[in-house]
Amino acid sequence: MKKIYVIKIGGNIIxxxxxxxxxxxxxxxxxxxxxxxxxxxxxxxxxxxxxxxxMGIEQQMVDxxxxxxxxxxxxxxxxxxxxxNKNIVAQLQANGCNAIGLTGADGNAIEAHKRIAxxxxxYGFAGDIDxxxxxxLRVLLDQQMTVVLAPVTHDKKGQLLNTNADTxxxxxxxxxxxxxxxxxxxxxxxSGVLLNADDDTTVINSINPSSYxxxxxxxxxxxxxxxxxxxxxxxxxxxxxKVIIGKAEQLEQLISGVSGTTIIDx
Length: 266
What we know:
The protein is of the alpha/beta class.
């Protein structure tokens, strides 16, 4: 069974041109070595927020998630699906990696629905995923194409939706696991899940359900990491073989399993 790596790149790397360039060079090397089989999922970093501020469009966040009104949707579509996605694709091409950038609307890659208001919070044009088009992705991956997914989906009724990139990575990995040996890798600026968020040497090498519960009970995991870990365990329960969280600059070591935090379901 062919190995597929679904890799999510964090916003802090996207915001740093030098770090992004180094990461994409390493990513291209891994894609070429693996004869394709890599899917890159990216968020938007802070560029959309900066552009909204320049245009006088107020941004609202609830629990780390953006409230996407109609004007904000235009901005995130332009930034995420446009500049960031195509910049990544162009840099991968420059490194000899044949890549194609997609939103959920392209080829009906990812279908979603508008998030239902919860606890009185209306997230606007935020999308929750209904389906990932594995047939389309399989065609591209089997042609050794690297797929770059932007965090914009659609509802198949003409409406674009802003969708969390971590969730896109998780759902894509889960969908592809029916046909491939899939590893899901979350890369960001830290070396893994840390016991001390301010000390990059306190990496937890592996986490299983019981140790995760203990760490949460003792409040040893900072709040921003909990959604990633919840997504990781959900992916493992749905057929993904391995989930790793670690530093973007250590991509080769993450893929080989000698760096970062490995999430295991046992």
